[in-house]
Design brief:
Helix content: 55-70%
Largest sheet: none
Strand content: under 5%
Number of helices: 6
Shape: elongated
Structural class: mainly alpha
């Protein structure tokens, strides 16, 4: 049967957008290399034209430069076409990726919506309000228990506030006296330290008495000691 009708040929898969874009980029790189080579050759011809005198030689160089310039213009046109095609392919690829992202987003949102609906079925507003009321009641009951446990025993309720303030002031006065008694006498203000009789020092002499005690020699009428006159030997 295969000999008569032949075998069905396998169809090659169509290229993807990424493959087509990669191929266009390679072709564009090749054209750019050709344009760079032509630019280098045109620069050489330009220098030759400057150095060559007007005449047949200069015209020949100009003719070759014009031929290379035409090739460059042709390659530049091809490069512009390749760039335009590459840009279109990139736009198509961007749109395709955007559609895929939208599909994935929709799938994720559908799954989240389904889970949210299932969760909401287990929650009811009435149940939540009832639970909140119960929690408030439990908190109030706990506060009452704490207050009950914190009551004081054997404390009279009919205490006079003025009497309590009077006792507090007397207590503060007693504490002040105790504090002053603990301080040594020599540290108390406006009081001189008392010395024992054995440690008391005599009063410092003044005037002629002081001079007499400092200089036990004979003193003159003003209290100063007299200096003996020495005989002057001639």
């Amino acid at each position: 049967m295969k000999r008569v009708f032949g075998a069905k040929k396998d169809k090659t898969p169509a290229p993807t957008v990424e493959e087509a874009t990669e191929r266009m980029n390679k072709r564009g790189d090749t054209v750019d290399e050709k344009i760079k080579k032509l630019d280098a050759e045109l620069f050489k011809y330009k220098e030759q034209i400057k150095r060559t005198r007007p005449g047949p030689a200069q015209e020949a160089v100009k003719a070759r430069a014009m031929r290379l310039l035409k090739q460059k213009k042709m390659y530049e046109g091809q490069r512009d076409q390749l760039y335009s095609q590459t840009f279109n392919l990139e736009q198509v690829a961007f749109a395709t990726e955007g559609i895929k992202d939208a599909q994935q987003t929709m799938s994720a949102m559908k799954a989240a919506n389904k889970d949210l609906k299932g969760t909401m079925k287990t929650l009811k507003i009435d149940d939540i309000d009832k639970m909140q009321d119960e929690m408030m009641d439990l908190v109030d009951y706990s506060s009452e228990i704490q207050e009950t446990l914190g009551r004081s025993y054997n404390v009279p309720d009919d205490l006079d506030e003025e009497e309590l303030m009077g006792e507090l002031e007397s207590l503060e006065a007693d504490m002040g006296l105790e504090t002053e008694s603990d301080v040594p006498s020599y540290l108390l203000p406006d009081k001189e330290p008392e010395l024992d009789s054995d440690m008391q020092l005599p009063a410092a002499p003044s005037g002629q008495a002081a001079s007499a005690q400092a200089y036990p020699q004979a003193a003159d009428e003003y209290g100063f000691p007299t200096v003996p006159r020495t005989s002057i030997r001639t």
